[in-house]
Input
Amino acid sequence: MNDPRRPAPIPLVLLTGFLGAGKTTLLNRMLRDPALAGAAVVVNELGEIGVDHLLVEHAEEGVVALAGGCLCCSLRGDLIVTLEELLKARDNGRIPPFDRLVLETTGLADPVPTLQTLTLHPYLAMRYRLAAVVAVVDAARGAETLAEHPEAARQVAMADRVLLSKTDVATPDERAATEGLIARLVPMAELRTAAHAPTAAIVAAVEAPERDLDAAPLGHGAIRSVSLESEAALTRGAYDLFVELLRSAHAPKLLRLKGLVRLADEPDRPLVVQGVRHVFAEPRFLDAWPDDDRRTRLVAIGENLEPDLLARLYAAFAGRPAADTADAAALTANPLAPRSGGLLG
Ligand SMILES: Nc1nc2c(ncn2[C@@H]2O[C@H](COP(=O)(O)OP(=O)(O)OP(=O)(O)O)[C@@H](O)[C@H]2O)c(=O)[nH]1
Output
């Protein structure tokens, strides 16, 4: 599946977080860290100010600031051009061959369209691969912000890793409230303190979802996550069909699907799944499982997702329809059984 003639895709880390959360402060710290010397950074700034002086001080050709608009809407075209230009400059040797890219979005940006752009674009999807979505959340005002601003909640819901900033000024109550909301919104994400996390770990790729996830609604009609796991390997056909049905039936609600899949014909190499809305990056195999756990582990994130429906859909393809239920119940709850109110909602 991996073509040896193609250059290895460059890991891309999307750095998100609400206005004033502390993204630029964090980036500035990263750019001073020799461990990240090989990274390029793209900053999208809202407003007319343009180039962020902090970043320009610490990096040279690798920094491209997009001024004048929001990354997820008016500057989407420019984002593509910028990322292509960076590749061209890298391939021509005009800039150092950066080994990863950090893309900072504006504080109001919805990360979903940006991720879609990256996974949909044929050339960019071939040259970059999404390594992680990192969200910065202000420990002091996070709870308030997440509750009041749906944009902020969407940013956090998409994150693989959440970094708490301003822990130095947050009261214990404020911090606990912020952490509580983050845990409900995105229980699978790693939560770290921005000031203490090693910067290399912040932008490291996330290859395995966390385990023992509970679907956790934030509130009525809000974003929630659903985990899907199975011991048995899936056939490629079953996996493809599962994704196809998931996309066609749940696409309007589904913001993201990610994780590792164990396929019957490649049990020693996990297939990495990265989907944003109905767009799925071409799945790729890792060389090996990241740990001893070789189960398929998928996380679906979306608005008003129905965990039971998703679990039954997945179970049907994972070869264990309703395995946890009694026989009679298993039969009647079998999602493949022809009846009304089936899997496709
Ligand atoms: N006390 C404290 N202040 C912080 C911390 N991180 C960021 N700040 C301050 O918070 C303010 C906003 O930080 P930025 O890094 O500009 O935030 P941003 O997320 O890039 O903001 P936008 O550009 O609006 O999206 C600045 O005044 C920072 O100095 C922190 O950990 N502790």
Summary: The chain has two domains: 10-202, 223-333. The chain has twelve helices and 13 strands. The domain at 10-202 is CATH 3.40.50.300 (Rossmann fold).
